[in-house]
Amino acid sequence: QEEHGPPGEARGGEEDGRAARAAHDLDRAPGGKRRDARSCACLPPGSLPAEFLLKGSVQGVPGDLPLLLSGAVYFFMENSPWKKEAPVQSGENAVTDENSFTYEGVLYALDKMSGLRFLPEADKRRVPPLLSSPDDKVAHAAARLLGAWSRAETDEALGRFWFGTLLGAAASGRPAARRQAALEAGVTIALGFPVSPYLGQVKRVAAGLVSQNETELKAAGFFLSSMAGMEDFAGQMLETLLYDPSPDSRLYAACALSRLGRSQGHDYLSKVALGTDPANKSEALTCLSYSASPEAERLLLSASEDGFDAAAAEVAKRGIKLRKQLAIIKK
Q1: For the chain, how far is it from start to end, CA to CA, in angstroms?
Q2: Which residues share a beta bridge with 28?
Q3: Which of 197, 265, 271, 279 is the one with CA 20 to 30 A from 62?
Q4: What is the pLDDT of residues 171-213, one digit of tens each?
């Protein structure tokens, strides 16, 4: 959206409203009923935007911090071990020539909404129902958009509404929406949302996720609770770290434990960060960027030196910047 005077703002609002109505209407069949899963269509992996830039200022922090928040969100979502593409669907949800436009249109509208500056509240409120879309990619994209709004919102009451909506979506529903909503809520907490009034709800939501057998739902519960500083699931995290046969599960658990300042998590991340697997090294260094361990910054500084693996060194340098941003936000 280009910068304009007041007439341009009016045009921007009209465009924003059209995008919101398109996303809402495309998710429904003629007659107002939600479209059957058989009419789903998905974009290929990687077609959703890499990050949602934050617009405006954030409640309770100086006006120059949204740019810091934007970089922090990008780093969280693009480098963390929790970053997964929304699932490619098959079977009755598979893309066909007949249904290929329908949900592609919803995703396009949500993508466009993420970059609009003058979206009225009434149009934004059309997005939460998409969290229960039978198309996993639509639900995933809706959760990401609501997460961006929860971090950029200048209206305190509306910010609470977006955050509460994410917690509600993380509590029940389709796995893709639950997982992404929990991750978005966790990042929002880490970036300064006043979570104290919600701690009871966060604990219940995290407990529900941690109780699941699916690795990524359990990991989302670990992430959400650790971002809120909750020690309630530290025992399960440690058990997962010590005994789970899945390397991904162990890494998820180590990230959460390190966020809580537990030495077992930091020690595991340090070992992985100094290992030979490039992907795992990057993920471990990302986790260290928001770790509460007093040794995390030292390891990131060491990894950022020129003699270290070049790709991992770049991740470490971004991690150091993120730690500085989080320190500013915390103040």
Answers
A1: 32
A2: 34
A3: 197
A4: 999 999 999 999 999 999 999 999 999 999 999 999 999 999 9
